[in-house]
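Forum: Protein Structure Q&A
Topic: Joint prediction for protein chains with partners

I've read a bunch of threads here and the consensus seems to be that you should model interacting components together rather than docking separate models afterwards. I'd like to see that in practice. Below is the full input, 908 residues plus whatever partners are listed. Could one of the regulars post the assembled result?
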Amino acid sequence: MDLKTQKMYEAFFALEDLREILRQTSPDHRFNDEQQKDFDGVLDRINSIIDEIRSNKGNYNLKYISKNIEIRDKEECFINIGPIQAGGRLTNEARKAVIAYGDGYSVCDQCLSPFRLDYLKKPPVGEFCEEVAGFLGMDVARVVRGARNGFQIVTNALLDKGDIALVSSAAHYSVCLAIESVGAIWKEIPLNESNVVTEIETAEKIEAVKEKEGVLPKLIAISHFDYLFANEHDVQGIAKVCKEYEIPFLYNGAYTVGIMPVNGKKIGADFVVGSGHKSMASPAPSGILATTDEFKDTVFSTTALQGDITKRKFGVKETYLLGCTVMGAPLIGMMASFPTVKERVKNWDEEVKKSNFFIDELLKIEGSKVVSEMPRKHTLTKVDTTDSFDKIAGTHKKKGYFFTSELKKKGIVGIFPGATREFKLNVYGLSWDKIRYLADSFKDIARKYELDVK
Amino acid sequence: MDLKTQKMYEAFFALEDLREILRQTSPDHRFNDEQQKDFDGVLDRINSIIDEIRSNKGNYNLKYISKNIEIRDKEECFINIGPIQAGGRLTNEARKAVIAYGDGYSVCDQCLSPFRLDYLKKPPVGEFCEEVAGFLGMDVARVVRGARNGFQIVTNALLDKGDIALVSSAAHYSVCLAIESVGAIWKEIPLNESNVVTEIETAEKIEAVKEKEGVLPKLIAISHFDYLFANEHDVQGIAKVCKEYEIPFLYNGAYTVGIMPVNGKKIGADFVVGSGHKSMASPAPSGILATTDEFKDTVFSTTALQGDITKRKFGVKETYLLGCTVMGAPLIGMMASFPTVKERVKNWDEEVKKSNFFIDELLKIEGSKVVSEMPRKHTLTKVDTTDSFDKIAGTHKKKGYFFTSELKKKGIVGIFPGATREFKLNVYGLSWDKIRYLADSFKDIARKYELDVK
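Posted by a regular:
Agreed with the consensus. Here's the joint model:
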């Protein structure tokens, strides 16, 4: 960790120590002698830290936050190309919001009747939900506990035990688990020869299920871009087929909502699921579930049961959401990032351009291949360096770790440790400068180990 | 907001601006002229802010974090006696951890095979889960997305459509929704004349269900202390009855786990559910679900299905948990708070003593009553001031709001706005000084409005 980052953390933590004194002396902050001494001590400490940052001189004292929890420097000291992390990196605003709203139920300060998260005016959660719905071209949206909780809400509402739901052969495990968790069964739609699901495979699979099981699938859930290759699947065509068979279609936008423009109704989706921590610059666990007027009363149905003794009812509480979902830091982070997120999706073409630039450079390294479809339509890519970097790994004493180690020396992290055959990387959000540096670094490492670079 | 708190936030936010520059210039932080200027500017700004804090002089410039999201001062500038917030207030360590691990998947940096949250060594999530299990006297524990997600995992695993589960007549809506969400039905065990559920009412209700429905309930879920009165229910006796009927017993520790000692096996619980944001000093949404060796394979069962085309299986992923649960800030906050939480439960008697002291003082105000059982065994209490403060509200031009307004002037927040009849408050974690100040404040307000104070 470089000194600036180290000292930045020291300053943050000193400020939290100061905050602790303020909390202990609330409401009036009349300090006794000891508290005054502590308070002044913290202020002195912050001044010294700022001096150290300015002069770039000082000691490295800080490693742990609390027992065994290390401070993290992946975003400050490295270029992080981890496949799942890029779109969930917090905005500056989200980081500020999380500082202010970390405490348990802090967003609930002004919860008034009818006591439901999406009715909150301060902070403006209700308005946020409405904006999210509009942003996705849907009628209504809710914040959920991650995309997988979004899937779960839909499967809970739509599927019974033994029902069949279709997913892609490249579906993420979480959508499969959401189906399995209600006792339903997931079956796969095959990828075509381009590793893509289209309306053709979808219609064939529906027919096959109908033929074999005598029933239609009750739900079809497909990722726009899958987690495996980040290939683009024909969601619009699939939605059309779903409409024809009258099967509800869930658009899985874990890798799209928040980084590229998504219009659920244009696509023909009945449900749009997004991930806050994957693509909306939010802390985990957070996500959104949006739907249409047609389905809102099904997935966001309110509780129907009543106490047999007390005759209590729980009014507007939404059953499958279990009432309020994300009451804290992830919600406020998501809300604070949202203005930036709405803007950044407009830059998607540029992000894809950067992705293709990097991949083209990588392909100049002899033997390197791309497993994902080409040209890239996404910033996440699966590459295959079996015939380039893995050849080095074969004889290197560090084996595959030589590669992650070389990258780390250049300040690059996020590739699976030791991987030199197939691995994924994501360049979302990197500036052109960083993209060029990244490409140069890969080529430098190749040259160092005498691989041919075009 | 007082100046110190205001300036504290300004310093935090300036540090985030500095961090943003570090992020944009990673990995080497070689600044161009403009970046250097910005960086120096932030350092200057922090120095000025520290000067302002020191001299307690300066302007109030900061109100919003991001569009419409206000900075929050409930813990720094007030004594917060909100009924649900006290146990979820972050520790200093948790606040530091959240700063370091706010980014989406930040805890996943070192996720290695078999790729499951509770296998993580860095940060030590696995160790944490084991410690939580031990702390609760149970065999195995997992982090979940709030207590309600803990209920949901159990109801998903144990209940089928139409099954009956028993809850208390004072049960929180979230446990009822968790039951309803799987198509099961909740029925209520009545409170006795002391507003408490004991083994007697439980056994009678089981028999009544058996008699009327011809089946036994499949689950009994009872709060140790309920949310309505924070009365203590006879969980040990109830557990005994459950054992006799071989009905699984879920101990709802939303108001106990993390603030008082809880030993699930001694109680006889099959499941212990705790809430991170309610009682474990963690950001929302977070919670824990602990169980025994007998039930672990049922509730934490791993996925059994397989892709019909790809033959994929998802190995160790736990179906009802949907794989990994809380990947971010709430998890790291919970972990960072845990050493403090383990210690603080030992002070529960003192917390209850403070609670009783405050309540006794409140009762000195003519006409004031307590709805909860007495003496208090908890820090959360429902009081009834219909014959004291509500009499003032009847003629005051602000109506009930006079009371919250008077309290606010004294730096006390958390009581439901406008409430002067029955309302709840929670004094958990307040120092004796604050407790005395709180009691004096209530009495001062009473005297101001000419209520008799003994």
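Chain B has 16 helices and 14 strands.
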